[in-house]
Amino acid sequence: MDTKEIKIAYREYTCAAELPEKERELVEAAIEAAKASYAPYSDFNVGAAVRLEDGTIVPGTNQENDAFPSGICAERTAMYAAGARYPDKSIRALALVGGPHHTICDTPATPCGACRQVMAQFQKKAGRPMQIILAGAKKIWVFEKVDDILPLIFTSLDK
Ligand code: THU
């Protein structure tokens, strides 16, 4: 028997101004997107933005519903919008911000399991790593690939 460890490396910043320009732009797009969050039930407003291979940025927000399971997270809104509008352009990066009542939490909001699995699918479709940027007001975490936030990632098929 062996005891194994999984190590995850990520960069931490204390504010968006410290980020490399492309990453900062994507965080700013997620912050802008969050203004359109529709979250009358949770009052937790989330904005996401994905950057495509050609630099196009696609926003998304959480969208809630009277029938609770019909709502959807900001990350999936952004990824599915990108997939629907630009099916042949891969997603290279995703930024996320969120907090109660249109604020941004000090520590980053982190994606739910379902969103991580959808990120994994888009990364697989792209055939290259998708960077994930989780931005809080006092901490920003940058992961270079979806695997880093979804260890032992599930994949069923080669395609
Ligand atoms: N939510 C997101 O949009 N993304 C996340 O990463 C976490 C949760 C949304 C779902 C729901 O509308 C609200 O935040 C509270 O869970």
> Low-confidence stretches at least 5 residues in length (pLDDT < 50)?
none
Order of strands across the biggest sheet?
1-6-5-4-2-3
Tell how many strands the DSSP assignment holds.
Answer: 6
Please give the largest β-sheet: 6 strands, mixed
**What small molecules does the structure contain?**
tetrahydrodeoxyuridine
Shape: globular
**Share in β-strands:** 15-25%
* CATH superfamily heading: Cytidine Deaminase, domain 2
Give the N-terminus to C-terminus distance in angstroms: 33 Å
State the order of secondary-structure elements, H for helix, E for strand. EHEEHEHEE
How confident overall, as mean pLDDT?
A: 96
Briefly note the structural class of the backbone: alpha+beta
Number of domains: 1
Number of helices: 3
CATH secondary-structure class: Alpha Beta
CATH topology group: Cytidine Deaminase, domain 2
Q: Which architecture per CATH?
A: 3-Layer(aba) Sandwich
Helix content: 25-40%
C-alpha Rg (nearest Å): 15 Å
